[in-house]
Design goal:
single chain; 53 residues; mainly beta; three-stranded antiparallel sheet; 0% helix; globular; Zn finger protein HypA/HybF (Possibly regulating hydrogenase expression)
Length: 53
């Protein structure tokens, strides 16, 4: 179980199964932060998706 907080409306909600696109159930924005639970997998914000030669 993971607990999230919406950065726009400050609504806190819990999600057991994380969908591909996480949205706030109240205002439907995608700007949410993880408060409690296991971190989501993925690349860090600073990682690049391409290589430079």
């Amino acid at each position: 179980m993971r607990k999230f907080r919406c950065l726009v409306c400050k609504h806190e909600f819990e999600v057991e199964d994380v969908p591909p696109v996480m949205k706030c159930p109240k205002c439907h924005t995608r700007f949410v932060e993880l408060i409690e639970g296991e971190p989501l997998r993925g690349k860090p914000w600073s990682s690049k998706s391409f290589s430079v030669k």
